[in-house]
TrEMBL record:
It comes from Massilia eurypsychrophila. Residues 8-229 form the NAD-dependent epimerase/dehydratase domain. It is an enzyme of class 1 (oxidoreductase). Pathway: Nucleotide-sugar biosynthesis; GDP-L-fucose biosynthesis via de novo pathway; GDP-L-fucose from GDP-alpha-D-mannose: step 2/2. NADP(+) binds at residues 12-18, 107-110, 142, 165-168, 181. The active site is at Y138 (proton donor/acceptor). This is GDP-L-fucose synthase. Keywords: Isomerase, Multifunctional enzyme, NADP, Oxidoreductase. Substrate binds at R189, W204, R211, D280.
Length: 321
């Protein structure tokens, strides 16, 4: 006799992480997946979210819907970043509880940690220092999301879990010239430099800042893994005041090494020049992933192979051959 599959709502299924979570669920044979585009369901609208949960009878939620962007977008639209993210989280978590959804996974961001946190960054460093000013509104919203999940667990006995990914990249990324993150931005710049035969590509900063990068399908696999852990394992490795898990590779690379690797991946053979008069940002941001490793999951995709997949996806998306 077959057990009925759980009815799983993936909020943000068109985004970088949400689309990868849908792929990961399908790979496990889980097909009872509910999705809604923003045009079909505006998650900042409480009445719409309430009506959705009352009619759809959801069993599990992956909350990957968020307004996201790089430094430029965060600096330009701070009001949208704090309002949209706070409203989405509050509406989904509250209506999930109201409608008896016991299991939820909330996806945060490593920018929740203090700007000058000790490295590597452990889960308990949350709220131990000043945030990075450029993305503080976004970080505050994500911290509120973690605290929402913790509070509903404490008060109502729900099983709402939180994962904090490091910098993500891969198929489905945003390659916008101003609003993208470092890997998609560099892939686009090196590709365009190759097409026009530019002699050099100038990169902001010294190239010495260290960053950790996680392939998005690894992040999705970790999300499904954490959601499927039995409650005793998950809650034994977290505590009510720090009930989130870091997700990363446990290793980092300099921006200089990354640029060189992307240049090679794209096939650009000009010079790579660094402009140390421009800011490096935080010197280092590496997550401590020992809790997740102890629970039996670790990242698989090597950076060089992941970048090849990302470049192929960029070419397919932009039809640039």
């Amino acid at each position: 006799m077959h057990t009925a599959q759980p009815r799983i709502f993936v909020a943000g299924h068109r985004g970088l992480v949400g689309s990868a979570i849908v792929r990961a669920l399908h790979a496990q044979g889980l097909t009872n997946i509910v999705t809604r585009s923003r045009a079909e369901l505006e998650l900042t609208d409480q009445a719409q979210v309430r009506a959705f949960f009352q009619s759809e009878h959801i069993d599990q939620i992956y909350l990957a819907a968020a307004r996201v962007g790089g430094i430029h977008a965060n600096n330009t639209y701070p009001a949208e970043f704090i309002y949209d993210n706070t409203m989405v989280q509050a509406n989904v978590v509250h209506e999930a509880w109201r409608n008896g959804v016991h299991k939820l996974l909330f996806l945060g961001s490593s920018c929740i940690y203090p700007r000058l946190a000790e490295q590597p960054i452990r889960e308990e460093y949350l709220m131990n220092g000043i945030l990075e000013p450029t993305n503080e509104p976004y970080a505050m919203a994500k911290i509120a999301g973690i605290k929402l999940c913790e509070s509903y667990n404490r008060q109502y006995g729900t099983d709402y879990r939180c994962v904090m990914p490091t910098n993500l990249y891969g198929p489905g990324d945003n390659y916008h010239p101003q609003n993208s993150h470092v890997i998609p931005a560099l892939i686009r710049r090196f590709h365009e430099a190759k097409i026009v035969g530019a002699g050099e590509v100038v990169i902001w900063g010294s190239g010495k800042a260290m960053r950790e990068f996680l392939y998005v399908d690894d992040m999705a696999a970790a999300s499904v893994y954490v959601m499927q852990l039995d409650p005793a394992s998950y809650h034994a490795n977290t505590d009510p005041m720090h009930s989130h898990l870091n997700v990363g590779t446990g290793s980092d690379t300099t921006i200089g090494e990354l640029a060189s690797l992307i240049g090679k991946t794209v096939g650009y053979d000009g010079q790579i020049v660094f402009d140390p008069s421009k800011p490096d940002g935080t010197p280092r941001k590496l997550l401590d992933v020992s809790k997740l490793t102890s629970l039996g999951w670790s990242a698989r995709m090597p950076l060089d192979v992941g970048l090849q997949h990302a470049y192929r996806s960029f070419l397919d998306t932009n039809k640039l051959y």
